[in-house]
Amino acid sequence: MTERPTSERPLRVAVTRDESADGPLAEALRRHGMQPVACPTIAEMPPLDRAPLLRAAAELERYDWLIVSSTRAVTALMEARDARLLPEGLRTAAVGLSTAAALLAGGAIAPLTATTAGAEPLARALREADQWVGKRVLLPRAAEGRHELAHSLKRWGAIVDEVVAYRTVPRPPDEIAAAWRAGAPQAVVVASPSAARALVAAIGAQPLRKLEPLVAIGSTTAMALVAVGVRAITPPRAEFEAIAELLQRVHAWRGSETIA
Question: DSSP H helical segments within the chain, as ranges?
Fold first, then answer.
């Protein structure tokens, strides 16, 4: 049985993202009374060939739209621009508020976001946002990123350039397993399908089935876990505050169940 934390012992939540101890997810968990424990499963690396990213970053003025699916993609693009602000006339869109905030910090004006997380809701929001025929769109993404959004834009007549902004590589399984044992988590936030696969490869599926709760960021991550027999819940938005709020609500509900 999973040990239920008492009121004096905050819920220990494993953070599988490649972030520091004061990273955005860890800070959101602390604000909601939980204890983040680091268990990074993947490491973020530069693209094997950075030339396409550097070229796109230098020529952003040629584009009508910049559409991003992660804060890391924004960071990589801004690094490639040597921190020069985004062009004033460039329209932007992001999958969530955290990514939109990164765009705003880079000089974007009113990035478009969807009301719910994921590429499909963003595609629906974008469909009515412009007349896409002939519009030039830049999509910086992870090397392992999905292509659904690019395919939709191309169907609408847009000219889409996808460039690899970063890539992820799994950490050694023994390193992941050691971090898991040291953290002794009671809940976990799985950040991506690649993080899910790396975590299961390191510790197996059974320890994950015992957790209450297991949160997957996005439906594709949840499906990657379902494929190995692990159920997960997903937040309504792919934002760190929404993740922390969901964990807090589920933990409070389970605690009231135990008392009853």
Answer: 24-31, 51-58, 71-80, 97-105, 119-127, 148-155, 173-183, 193-203, 206-209, 219-226, 240-259
